[in-house]
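Try it yourself: sequence plus pyridoxal-5'-phosphate, in.
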Amino acid sequence: MRYISTRGQAPALGFEEAMLSGLARDGGLYLPETVPTLDHGEIAGLAGRPYEEVAFTVMRPFIGESFGEEELGELIARAYEGFGHAARAPLVQLAPDHFLLELFHGPTLAFKDFAMQLIGQLFQAALARRGERVTIVGATSGDTGSAAIEAFRGLENVDVLILFPEGRVSEVQRKQMTTPGESNVHALAVEGDFDTCQALLKDMFNDFAFRDEVALAGVNSINWARVLAQVVYYFTAATSLGAPMRPVRFTVPTGNFGDIFAGLIARKMGLPIERLIIATNQNDILHRTLETGAYRRGEVVPSISPSMDIQVSSNFERALYYAHDGDSAAVAAQMEALAGGQGGFTIPPGAINWLREHFASGRASEEETMATIKTTYLTSSEVICPHTAVGVKVAREFLAESPAPMITLATAHPAKFPDAVEKATGIRPELPARLARQFEAEERQTRVAGDLAALKALIRERLSS
Ligand SMILES: *Cc1c(COP(=O)(O)O)cnc(C)c1O
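Structure, out:
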C-alpha cells in the first residue's frame, strides 16, 4: 500500500514511512492511494468478534508489508490490553434508536487512546528494528497530549514533547500531561490558544533543517496511522447493530476532523453508513462551511468542550482532497489561501455538493450542551461529558429522519470534565482510582512563548540535557 500527499508534491511512501513522518514534506496529509474494501460476507463476519480481531482485519490491508501478520497481531493485543473494558468500545443504549459508543475506557479516558496506544506500539517496533531515535512533538487541545504521553512515556527510542495552550485545558487534562515523571516526557505550556500550538507545530515540520536535526515525528490526528486505528470502532459498533444487513448512522463530536474522517474511510471500505453527522460546539467552522460553502476561520471561543475548540480543522484537508476528486493542486491552493491573508476560501460547487452528500452537520451552544447533559441523565441515567453532549444534541435533531440506528460517539469520560457535569446533573463523576493516585505526583511543565525560535531553542536544550 502506497500513501500519497493531499498536495501532490511529496513522494509516495509506504505505511511505515508515512506513519513515522506524520506530515508530508509539501505540507500535505497522507492518504492511501486506494481504499481497500471488505465485502458483505467479510463485514458480516466481524459481528461479535473481539475488538482486536476486528482491528486486525480492518487495518491489515492498509499496512501492507510494513509489519508481519504475527507481529501486527501482537502489537494490537498490547495496545488494547490496558483498557478497562473487555469490549474496548462498548455500546450503551440511550433511546430506542439511539446508542452511545463509549470510547473512554483507555488509560487517559478519551477516544484518543485507541489510536495513540496502537501508534506507540507501532513506533516502538519500527524504530527498534531500524535502530533509530525520534522526537515526537504534538499539539493538543487537551486529550491528544495526555494520550501521547501515556503511549510513549519511558520508551527507549522516543522523546515526547507536547504543546498545550496555557490555561485552556482542564485540570485533569493538565495533570495527565504534567505528572508523568519519565525523563523522555516534556509538557510545554504555550502562551496562546490551540490554533497557536497547531500553527507552531506546522511551522516546525516545514522547517526541514530542524526537522532532520532532531528527527521530528508527528502523532497529531493528521498522522494516517491514527486515522486508521479509529476506523476500527465504526465496524465493531455497526456490526453489533446489524450491519451490513442494516445500515446505521453516526454522529461524531468534531474538532480536528480526525475521528469523523475515520468514519468516511469505514464507509469507503464498504460499511453501510447512511449518515455521517458532524457535531460542533460554538466553534462551528465545519458546520458553517457545510451551510455556506465557505471555509473561513474565526476566533476560537473557549467552551466547556475544550477538545473541540478549534477553528482550523487539520484533517478537513483530507475530505477536501476527496471532494475535489484528487485534484491536489486545488487543495494546495485552498490551503495557501487559508494560511495567507485571506483566512479562508470558497469551495467550488462540485466539491461542496460532494461534502453535503457525504456529511450532515449541526452545532450546540454552551446552554444546549449543558441542557443535553441534564436531559440525557434524566431520560437514560447516563452521565455524559460535554463533548459527547454536543454529539447527542445534534444526533437528536436527525433521529426522526430515518429508522436506521443512530450511534453517537462518546469521546471522553465524564470525570475528565467534572465541573460542567456536576453543574448540569448535580452529580460529581468520580475518576477511576488509578488516575486519582497518579495525580498526587508532582507537576512538571515548561512555559514557552508562541514563537517558533523560542520553541526550537527550548527543544534543542531539552534534547541535549
Ligand atoms: C479530540 C477530541 C474530540 C475531537 O476529535 P477530532 O478527531 O479532533 O475531531 C472530541 N472529543 C474529545 C473528548 C476529544 O478529545
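One thing you can check immediately is this: The chain has 20 helices and 15 strands.
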